[in-house]
Structures are given as C-alpha cells and as structure tokens.
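Two quick folds needed for the group meeting slides. Do the first one here.
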Amino acid sequence: MTLLSRRAFGTGATAAAASLLVGCSSGAEGVRTTGTAAPDAAASQQTAGKHTAAKSVRAVGRSVPVRLRVPAIGVDTPVMRLGLASDGTVQVPPISDHDQAGWYEHSPTPGQTGPSVILGHVTVGAYGDGVFHDLSRLRRGEKIVARLENGTETEFTVTSLRTVAKADFPTDDVYGNVSRPELRLITCGGPKDEDGYLDNVIVFASLTSSTKP
C-alpha cells in the first residue's frame, strides 16, 4: 500500500508533531488516513500561510458536522466523527452496506477558518459503491452542504478537483493553513494494482454561505 506523508495541521510551538498519511488499501478499496499524533485544530484556524484568498463569507462557530449533501452526485450521507485509534492511527469509516462519510475531528469543523477534512470510501468491498464513488464527477461551481450539530447549514462551492498519484499528493495545498473556511473531500481513484487504488481524488471547496436555524 502506498502512503502519503504530510505535516501536522497548524504551525508554531503548539502544533502537535504528527505525520498524516493518506492511501487506499485493497481490502477497504476506499480512503485510509493514518497518523501518529493528533494535529492541533486550533492552530490550523489561524489566518496565515500562502493560501490566502479573496474576500469570502465570514466563518461560523465550531459545531461538528452531522450530515453532508452533494446534490450534483447524489450524495446525502450522515457524517461520523473520526478520531485516533489506540495504535495512534486515524480512524476511517467502517466498511459496511450503510457506508457514510467521516469528518476528521482534529481538523476545523466545516465553516471554521481552515481546511475541514471529510473522508469517504470510493468502494466498500463486497458491498459495492462507496459514498464518494462519484466524487471525481464534481465540477467547479457545484455545491456541497454540510449541516452542523447546532442546526447551521454551511454551503461550499467547489473551486477545484484534482486526481493525483499518491506519490505526488499536494500535502500543503490540502492541509496547509488558509485564511478562510474551506473544505476538502478526499477519496481514492484512478487505476488499481494488487494493493488497491493508485490515486487520490481531492475536492477543494470554499464557504459561500451559511444559514443558522
């Protein structure tokens, strides 16, 4: 299995020393993320870094995502929380016939300043298609809606989509600090070998509106 290393969320002395890895195993045939320590979500919300952007919608308060909708590809899924397993690896959604997406709880919540990261399987073994099976069909300008636990709905607009070889994974672009609320949806794709998919599909999106209950 090919893995992709990256630096921890955030910068400065308070950031945890971590290395996150993204890959796909032949067993899950989806997305896999592992880590050696919990990154510092608060640090990643700082207004900093080379990923500054034009004026955008004001960030919302922290509230965990509970549902994700991507109308253009028919996704309407509950969102589970993904933390760290006892061995220090990052949890992934279970392989089941009721596949759902998972938000990595050490990233900002959708609508906070920084890159919020949601993972999903492209396929789930004998169960067939995963929740992000059609993620590669998304196009710039299409909408993604994350509903938060406090009832707020945050709407993101796709700014770009990349399918990249794991060896060329754009770690800074995906996980680096940004000065506005952004969203990353990540799964696997491309050709396969005996170890699974060779590429990652990454959707980049920016917050364009929010609605409070």
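Then this one, please, same format:
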Amino acid sequence: MYNKQTPISLLIIEDHLLMMEGLRSLLLNRPEVELAGSFSAGLEALAFLETHPVDVVLLDVNLPDISGVALCSKIREIDGTVKILALSASGERSVILQMLQNGANGYLLKNTSSKELMDAVQQVLEQRIVLGPDVQRIMAASGSTAEAPRLTRREKDVLQLIAKGLTNPEIAVQLGISTLTAETHRKNIMQKLKVNNAAALIKAAIDHALI
C-alpha cells in the first residue's frame, strides 16, 4: 500500500516501444517514483503482479495478447488496492467506460503532457477518479441527453466518495454520519439514477456529468 514517505512503486504495461521508452525516461528521472518494471505483454505483467505488488499501473488499452479491459479486471482481482491509470490512443467513449467499469482509476490519452501524467498519478493515489482534459470533453460531448436527476447536497457528497471507491463505513467516517445513513444515501442515489450496482452507478454519474 502506498506510503507518502516512500517512492511511488509504478509498473508500465505498454506494447509500443517508443512510448515505453518515453515513459521509462520520464519516470526514471523522478525521485518520487520507483519503476518496478515495464512489460509489453499483458499476461507477463499479470504474472509479475501476482508476486510483486505495486502502487500504480500505467496500462495501455491495446495489447497484443489480452485486451486492456480484460487485463484491468484481472489486475483488480489480484490487488484491490492498486491504482490503474489507463493510457490510450483511443478516445472512444465505450472504451473509456469499459475501463472504468472494470476497475481503472483514471483514463488519459497518449497525447497527455508529462505534468498531466504525474498529476494524474498523484490524484489516483489520493483516491480520485482521473479523466484527462480531452477525455472529459469526449464524455461531456457524448453524454446522456436525459435530464440529470436531482441529488441533495449530501447525496452529491456521498456520490463523490463512492466514485473514489470508498465503502459505506469509510463514507460514514469521512462525512461524520452513521454507516446506516451512508447506506441509505447510496440506495437513494442508485434509485434516482436507476441503477443496481456500483459500476452502473459510476457510468450513470459520468453520463449526467455528476462526477
């Protein structure tokens, strides 16, 4: 688990050699980062992660041996705490949503700047869902045309914490409310957004620009 007193342990999964070398060059020059490894094949990286836990994975969406979406889900099965930051040339809304629904903590396009990348790494470690500026525009431009449901101020607070991956007890502590109250707010939000699971909740919240 990430400790602010130690360097960020980071793994690269990227099948384009030039992109991998660029990322390696960037990260090797950052004292706050410790590069755990870099792999061009997803299954090889998955085997590594089974015995070498890391803080952050930079994950290419298109890999030669397994899709980034499937790999994201498998990484999440191995380690529920690792932060997964998708890096892709694809700006397809369906791909972005699939990555988020399968456990990614953020999505950046490969034209992102080095500063944006490092900022995103820090933000996912702070339990935030991170979408690059271009990705945000894609999601906003192709979002739902239906009117967004009305959430109370407290429901909006709870929704933001759900998006960060917090459980009902953790939300309760964060907001100074009971676990039962946090659970009730979650149920009310899901009812208003007409969903029945967390992945669908995040998708609906993004569709309506609520997060």
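Slide caption for protein two: Residues 30 and 37 are 15 Å apart (CA to CA).
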